[in-house]
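Hey, quick one: can you model this chain's 3D structure?
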Amino acid sequence: MRYVGLDLASCSGWALFEDDKLLERGTIQLISGMDLPQKLHYFHLELTNLLTRLQPEYCFIEDVILAISGAKTLAYLARLNGVAINAAFSILQERVKLYDPPYWKSHSYDGLSGMAKKWQIQLAVIKHYNIPITGNFEPVEKTVSDFDNIIDQYRDQTNGFRDESNKLKSKLNLKRNPPTESEKHAIKQQIKELEKTIASNKQTMKDVQKQFDKSMVKMSNDIAAQTGMTENICDACGVAYCGYKERLNVQN
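Sure thing. Here's the predicted structure for all 252 residues.
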């Protein structure tokens, strides 16, 4: 099975596979000085030429969903998406399929969730296809593992506080041997303190995640520099692998 994956952006990643073997990969870079109609026409030409040359049996494209990027970016990506669908369909007809990001992430490489970050996808692609890298990246797995342990500790702690809070709330509604007014006041204070702690833990997890993601940017750039596997190309690999696995299940 020969298939291609597309991750659409101003620098769109693409990856061509034969079964589970990566054959080619690259990007289509839009020219910033062009106006929108020119960019869309240029993208259509480049993608049409690419698909004509690659001759895939299937094309799997990342779909567009409203996320934190906002309406303006959504509109731009939706236009690129429409052009990509048109160009692919003119060559492959019904053998074109779209996958939204949470779906293809969670249905592609082992260990990825629907909320996987770009660096996580990049590491998964490098590992899955055993792409050689020059630097010593063994400490990366330990760094990621240590970070996951920290987040798990905060999450377990938060869940414990939440369970405790729910138990206290149940006490307030006891029909048999209900608490006195003074006891209710004390219970409500405990609940209030627990909710503050839960909110603080959640914010701490967000801050820790944000700082960790920043620290992984250099690692991601190092991998891209050594392998040519940029984040956009790796996302295209993920979309493609999701489609490939789905086709295998259909055939079986």
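One thing worth noting: The helical segments are 36-54, 71-92, 101-106, 118-128, 138-172, 181-227, 231-251.
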